[in-house]
């Protein structure tokens, strides 16, 4: 399409974005007030906060990493679908701010914060934990924002008023901007992907594995960031199916692109399941007390036993069986339904990662609901803010 047509299509799409921000903002405020009232019960507040941080931060970061991977592969299939993933970068700095809550709750949850583990004091100490994870998230946030900037910048001058003014400041012409962005993205995209793998492996080790400081798995970091990508793809499928018709994106996000996304979901279902099985097999047959206890507690004790099998079937087995079918992957709402099941299984898996290690009861009450609602509302608020300000249809939509 020509540049005027492209600009008109994006303006029309932005004008159709539902005005849900006020409701989401009210939800965030209510959640914040409720959390202040529930703050006295640290064994309910902080585990729920921990789980939600792991889940929602991973979703947003996965969308940006997917866009970087598609750029590295010089893919042209994604178009508006990949742009929808890129715009989740709006939540990435919010997640960085929410890490302050992790810093506040760490002393209440991390068993080694007050009782150092012999031989591991140099690594498992609170100050070093906060510095390394905090600086890792700062670097990843900066790389993500820079990647989004240089992806969007070359388009900005083509349609004055379509983008925020700060993005077009110092515009040097289409050809010069494209050449500069191409040069920067050639090294920034691989740096972002590698940094993601490193930082999210570190988060997996520090924020999940260290909750049970006597258990360890060298594969857990890779498993953690892979499952985050798996859930990020599922969220992208759900968001695309929900927003496609209201925003008038039927021509920009077609059944062919849903089919491609479905194939990626199927591939990550296999990969995540393989990592899960590889860890389980080695730990179980190794039969070492410090390793097997992690599995035994989750597969032999209730309520974790039931939740473990729900995660196994809902997050891996059922999606695997359904996504084999070609037709399912081509229909937006059927793919979205499978993806919603993956997301539910992924959230339950994050619960399984945190609560059993803390040996605290799992209750679904007001505190847990408010934490989850607050995180979900902040995520939605960030995404809708971005949808109003940045075009969903890229100029090279193919």
Describe this structure in words.
This protein is globular. It is mainly α. Helix 6 packs antiparallel against helix 8, helix 9 packs antiparallel against helix 14 (332-358) and helix 10 packs across helix 12. The protein has helices at residues 3-15, 21-38, 42-72, 80-86, 92-109, 126-156, 165-168, 174-208, 220-244, 255-286, 289-299, 304-323, 326-330, 332-358, 366-389. The model has no long low-confidence stretch (mean pLDDT 88). It has one domain.
Task: Please outline what is shown here.
This protein has helices at 3-15, 21-38, 42-72, 80-86, 92-109, 126-156, 165-168, 174-208, 220-244, 255-286, 289-299, 304-323, 326-330, 332-358, 366-389. The protein is an all-alpha fold and 398 residues long.
**Overall pLDDT:** 88
Structural category: mainly alpha
Low-confidence stretches: none
Structurally, how many domains make up the residues? Answer: 1
Per DSSP, the total helix count is 15
Indicate the overall shape. Answer: globular
Radius of gyration: 21 Å
The helix/strand order is HHHHHHHHHHHHHHH
- Helical proportion, percent range: over 70%
Fraction in beta strands: under 5%
**First CA to last CA: what distance?**
10 Å
Work out the number of β strands: 0
For the biggest sheet, the summary is: none
SSE blueprint and pairings:
Blueprint: H1 3-15, H2 21-38, H3 42-72, H4 80-86, H5 92-109, H6 126-156, H7 165-168, H8 174-208, H9 220-244, H10 255-286, H11 289-299, H12 304-323, H13 326-330, H14 332-358, H15 366-389
